[in-house]
Amino acid sequence: MARRPTIKDIARRAGVSESAVSFALNGRPGVSEETRARIRRVAEELGWQPNSAARALSGERAGVVGLVLARPAHTLGVESFFLQLVSGVQEVLGAARTALLFQVVEDLDAECALYRRWWAERRVDGVLVVDPRTRDPRPGLLAGLGLPAVTVGEARPAPALSSVRADDARAMAQILDHLHGLGHRRIVHVAGLPELAHTARRIASLRAEAQRRGLRPQEVRSVPTDYSDTEGAAATRRVLNEPAPPTALVYDNDVMAVAGAGVAAELGIPVPGRLSLVAWDDSALCRVTHPRLTALVRDTAAFGRLAAEELLAVLGGGQPRVRLAEQPRLEPRESTAPPPPAY
Amino acid sequence: MARRPTIKDIARRAGVSESAVSFALNGRPGVSEETRARIRRVAEELGWQPNSAARALSGERAGVVGLVLARPAHTLGVESFFLQLVSGVQEVLGAARTALLFQVVEDLDAECALYRRWWAERRVDGVLVVDPRTRDPRPGLLAGLGLPAVTVGEARPAPALSSVRADDARAMAQILDHLHGLGHRRIVHVAGLPELAHTARRIASLRAEAQRRGLRPQEVRSVPTDYSDTEGAAATRRVLNEPAPPTALVYDNDVMAVAGAGVAAELGIPVPGRLSLVAWDDSALCRVTHPRLTALVRDTAAFGRLAAEELLAVLGGGQPRVRLAEQPRLEPRESTAPPPPAY
DNA sequence: GCCCCGAACTAAACCGCATTAGTTCCGGCC
DNA sequence: GGCCGGAACTAATGCGGTTTAGTTCGGGGC
């Protein structure tokens, strides 16, 4: 096991003091250019990297940001959203030599406890808060602790926090444009968890858009689920068995959309002949069903990059602000068509 | 922003020296039981948590382990395997107050570079190595650095490393038992990346099992893919268009299996009437298709727990060893049936 | 020729904890 | 009564950096 070189090794080898090494490698004044170059060369030779603990201890940043995912274990994994987001986050963090502490916990209480612990342990410089809720204890907690944070998907964060989010209202309007334009008048939105802020925004937007078009609440409405394939399928079955079933369904994620397509197949309802389907979020799933699903395509990795950039900006002392993600695009595929004339 | 309490604060408040506090809170001798209790109480009141950087700096563990996922960004996310694994890993790590540094990188070179950096920065105490390959530079590198590691999915790791893995050979035998028992004689295994060690094991096992049953290589064989829905679909289309197409297909992951089911539907080939499908790894996906897919069910979270336990054991000074995951179970659903009599 | 100043560098303190080397005090023993 | 030993505690050191407070030295100004 090789020994890790320290600045002491560099200092000895370059014939200078340890402080000179520190100055040289951090680009501060106090050493001549020749010395700086020499020290740099030696550090390079030795393959030196600053000990992250020592750095963190002497007041610098820890070089770590945290991301907690509070979800029951069994709902994990099928959705493409998270790994995409995380991969975008890391593109930006990696370039800034910042690591990502990632943790999956069972619920919101555990998440809050974890923030407290991370703060007390000085383990992270800041956190990305995902799945913001309508009444969310986290922004207040983080603001109180003074732990820098960026909420991902929140419209009105606590004043002290930055936020990045998508324009869900406009996206929903886009979907309604598409379906209404095709002639659909009875539309059900199979929504995700209603406590989540973005779900609430989508539901509100659906209602507003419907009203704007003179459609009544019994014709166009949202039904809540927990995002799982099971509840997505159950909700689909329920609304399709109503006396005047919808002619179009909008799903809040790809997994439920695929599950819904399965239910339609099982009930013998042709898609898009008698039923149109739209998925919010695209992924391989939407392209492997038959017919392929019309989907709202978002660049989730770009969203992650935006979030990471914003967090780094906050860590660098920037002012908190709200940034909007690039507008998603509706990709029409074979699962949407005009409703049957009979209706 | 509240100030984080340190042992100095505790010492002052409890009227003892800092060392007494350290002794008391770490359960070592040198303080009386009353004093220990008092110090514990004060620490509790103040909400003290050890500063992770200071701990790491004074020779203790950093309390962090790393996990690097080397995959091009676009192949991320649809598979359920990883988040499940990670959630299992964290159940165990969380209990041991150990954090997980998680990073997504583009390729193996970047992964190796990251291990070097983490090692030099003393950022992690150990790492979990996933996606082991047939000729893998990582175990050698890690052994050379002296960075404790557990490979997840490797049969014969470098002698210095621990490993947890599944018994792919027996699982494959199980699948062949099922299909052969139903009467299938022409079977294609749509495999994942051939460089991955577990893919190689599955391919070898398929060949061995076929031979044992007197089936020829042109009847029972593996075709490689990159795990994506695209290649899974392409491979399916290719083999189904052959003069003597297989009557059963075994897919190395759930995403490809669902994509394959889509291709069969598109080609008008009834499942399971003329074609049986098996997915390696179960997930919501396998239950939303029609028919639902027969799948090899593994407890991936348990696999993650096993890996984390083993890594903690290694960090605690345990001997390197190889541990087998619980045997997976084949869950027959509607996608497998006897082949058509004509064949 | 002396003084002052800034550039270039070194010494030392500090971050928060673990740990080793003392120190104090008390009781038991001869 | 003096000595020894152990329990209970304190002081001091180190981990590997950053940073502040010196120190040295050479050159320019008067």
Description:
2 copies of one chain form a homodimer. The first copy, chain A, has 343 residues and is an alpha/beta fold. Helices cover 44% and strands 15% of the residues of chain A. In chain A, the strands form 2 sheets. The first copy, chain A, has a 6-stranded parallel beta sheet with strand order 2-1-3-4-5-11, sandwiched between helices. In chain A, strand 9, helix 12 and strand 10 (294-297) form a beta-alpha-beta unit. The first copy, chain A, starts with 6 loop residues before the first helix and ends in a 12-residue tail after the last strand. Chains A and B meet through helix 4, helix 5, strand 2, helix 6 and helix 10 of A and helix 4, helix 5, strand 2, helix 6 and helix 10 of B. Chain B binds a DNA duplex (30 and 30 nucleotides) through helix 2 and helix 4.
Summed up:
Chain A contains 13 helices and 12 strands. With 343 residues, the first copy, chain A, is α/β, with parallel strands linked by helices. In chain A, the strands form 2 sheets. In chain A, strands 2-1-3-4-5-11 form a 6-stranded parallel sheet, sandwiched between helices. The first copy, chain A, has a 6-stranded mixed sheet with strand order 7-6-8-9-10-12, sandwiched between helices.
